[in-house]
TrEMBL record:
The keyword Transcription regulation applies. Residues 31-105 form the HTH gntR-type domain. The keyword 4Fe-4S does not apply. This is GntR family transcriptional regulator. Residues 1-34 are annotated as: Disordered. Pfam families: GntR. It comes from Streptomyces incanus. Gene3D superfamilies: Winged helix-like DNA-binding domain superfamily/Winged helix DNA-binding domain. Residues 24-34 have a biased composition (Basic and acidic residues).
Length: 263
């Protein structure tokens, strides 16, 4: 996801800005920063990163995400509100783009094991373009040391007792056939925040049937388990592999299921 320079130029009030819609600027090179942020945010809404009706991240998170001030974020949101693309109530702002929300069963959250851990919980996700971890290249049919898109996820409960880490590597096939994933290559520097929560929906919208195989094993001498998820399509082509480490006490378990492509 592209980051905008954190140095905000002088900004005009959103109430006196031109009436041009954020997705159709008359002079992009002369646009105020808040309008450029509005355009970027609208692009992410349309990509499905935040489906219709879902809450947007808070102003502070959006400011960090785009590398601008909270005031710039407020002005950008105001532009989208005036165009009816974002609505705000007492619980915050949410997307209002037309189209039904995409339902994602809890078992299909990306990455596997990612979930809200309660008030005060912390989580972060980044992407990088690098050689995948040991074992991932072979699983994805990649040549040794060949770089690919690698997603890293970390979360902890408010009390710090529940810690989860996950590393996902994507195959060349996934990056070629799924435009939303391919866009991350040029900005995958290992520090950019990653919004891949809809990764499985993107894969399905590309016409792929997803076959998951999750293996859960205990890590000897520790209270943790390792969950290894492998996903391939209807042609048995590998799409991604994820390794999740989570504190738990479970026996080994393997289960499989298949999702049809989106219609």
């Amino acid at each position: 996801m592209a980051r905008t320079t954190p140095h905000d130029p002088p900004q005009a009030s959103p109430h006196t800005a031109p009436s041009t819609a954020p997705h159709d600027p008359a002079h992009p090179e002369d646009e105020p920063l808040y309008r450029r942020i509005a355009t970027e945010l609208l692009g992410e809404l349309r990509d499905g990163a935040i489906p219709p009706g879902e809450r947007l991240p808070g102003e502070r998170q959006l400011a960090e995400h785009f590398g601008v001030s909270r005031e710039t974020v407020r002005q950008a949101l105001e532009v989208l509100r005036r165009d009816g693309l974002v609505a705000t109530d007492r619980r915050g702002s949410h997307a209002t783009l037309k189209g039904p929300p995409v339902e994602t069963p809890a078992a299909l959250t990306f990455p596997v094991g990612a979930r809200y851990a309660g008030r005060g919980a912390k989580a972060r996700a980044t992407v990088s373009w690098e050689s995948p971890p040991p074992g991932h290249a072979e699983a994805l049919a990649l040549a040794p040391s060949r770089p690919t898109l690698v997603h890293r996820y970390w979360s902890a409960s408010a009390d710090g007792r529940e810690l989860r880490t996950a590393v996902t590597s994507f195959s060349t096939i996934a990056l070629v056939e799924v435009e939303e994933l391919a866009r991350y290559r040029d900005r995958a520097d290992g520090t950019t925040a990653a919004e891949l929560r809809r990764a499985y929906d993107w894969l399905r919208r590309a016409g792929l049937t997803l076959h998951h195989r999750d293996t859960i094993t205990r890590i000897a001498g520790t209270p943790s388990v390792r969950v290894t998820r492998r996903v391939h399509d209807q042609y048995a082509r590998p799409l991604e592999i994820t390794e999740l480490i989570v504190d738990a006490q479970q026996d080994a378990l393997v289960y499989e299921f298949t999702l049809p492509a989106a219609v």
